[in-house]
Design brief:
Blueprint lengths: L18 H9 L7 E4 L5 E3 L1 H9 L7 E4 L3 H14 L6 H14 L5 H8 L3 H10 L7 E3 L5 E3 L2 H14 L5 H8 L3 H12 L14 H13 L5 H14 L1 H4 L2 H10 L18 H31 L4
Parallel strand pairs: 1-3
Antiparallel strand pairs: 1-2, 4-5
Helix pairs in contact: 1-2, 3-4, 4-5, 5-6, 7-8, 7-9, 8-9, 9-10
């Protein structure tokens, strides 16, 4: 793609392009991954530093992938890609990106935005409460499904739809009300029996609601520490500033045997003698303390603007 056709990014980075990083990319002879460009606007979605590096080298063309979608979808992708690889977004940039996403797409769930922005779901909830605006009746989850924030509200909507459109299918009622088909079936059955379709939550929920709760539990699993560690490692291993510099490769080689994944711990440990368990526990705490000390040093350097 001609570099002259590419526009600068609508970037989630408040500081813009880090020229030192761009110059380091410009000096490498390794082939860099293609940039991602929004087809409609020709703005860079991912790869602003690679684009700048190509300009510094005086190149006329750059390898690129085109993305089809609206502006909001392009920004979501930009945040997701910049959180997951290359130069990670700062916490401030991730929070600012989350605020922008909440304002542009308020029906996205806290968990869906958290997954995109690399923040905790409770942080998204806190940011959402800080933003003025009418409360939403439903949110779109990570799986793309619309669900009512209040289960009773969803049942109430379903009851109104069934009354006004008696020939509508359960699937259509469920879709329009943002509930499961099973819950829509329960609402219709309760209406036919002359019962209140909105359950009194002081009573035990019926089978449909218990099934929906189980479904939600399956769809929103707890975070897996090993998966998070692997994701962080892959992010660092894909970072061009580490992959294509000698100091970066040394760091990656050093990290390899020193990162402990919980699913690789040889369990059960009950066969280890008691005194060895105590020693192992002390060793684990000492290692944890060393990593915490390293993390605090890195965070202090970041806060003071020392980037090496």
């Amino acid at each position: 793609m001609p570099i002259s056709a590419v526009r600068d990014a609508d970037s989630p980075r408040s500081a813009g392009v880090d020229m030192a990083h761009a110059r380091s990319l410009a000096q490498t002879e390794a082939k860099l991954p293609p940039i991602v460009v929004h087809r409609r606007t020709m703005r860079v979605i991912d790869g602003a530093h690679r684009l700048t590096a190509a300009r510094l080298r005086g190149e006329q063309e750059i390898s690129a992938k085109l993305f089809d979608g609206d502006d909001n979808e392009a920004f979501l992708l930009a945040v997701r890609l910049n959180v997951s690889h290359g130069m990670p977004l700062s916490t401030a940039d991730r929070r600012a990106a989350a605020v922008r996403i909440i304002r542009a797409q308020p029906r996205l769930s806290d968990r869906a935005i958290a997954l995109t922005a690399g923040l905790a779901a409770k942080t998204i909830g806190s940011l959402r409460r800080e933003i003025d605006g009418p409360p939403e009746q439903a949110r779109i989850g990570r799986d793309g499904r619309v669900r009512p924030i209040n289960g009773a509200a969803g049942r109430g909507i379903a009851a109104e739809l069934i009354a006004s459109h008696p020939d509508a299918t359960l699937r259509q009622i469920a879709k329009d009300a943002g509930i499961s088909v099973e819950t829509a079936r329960s609402v219709r059955a309760r209406l036919r029996a002359g019962e209140d379709p909105v359950l009194d939550r002081r009573t035990r929920p019926d089978r449909a609601d218990r099934a929906e709760d189980r479904q939600m539990t399956v769809q929103l699993p707890e975070a897996d520490p090993s998966a998070e560690l692997r994701s962080l490692l892959k992010t660092m291993q894909r970072d061009p500033s580490l992959r294509y510099t000698e100091s970066g490769r040394m760091l990656l080689r050093w990290l390899g045997p020193r990162v402990l994944l919980t699913d690789e711990i040889p369990l059960p440990l009950r066969h280890i003698p008691p005194h060895s368990r105590i020693n192992l526990g002390a060793l684990a705490r000492a290692c944890a303390a060393a990593w915490i000390q390293l993390a605090m040093g890195l965070e202090d350097d970041q806060a003071s603007g020392q980037h090496g």
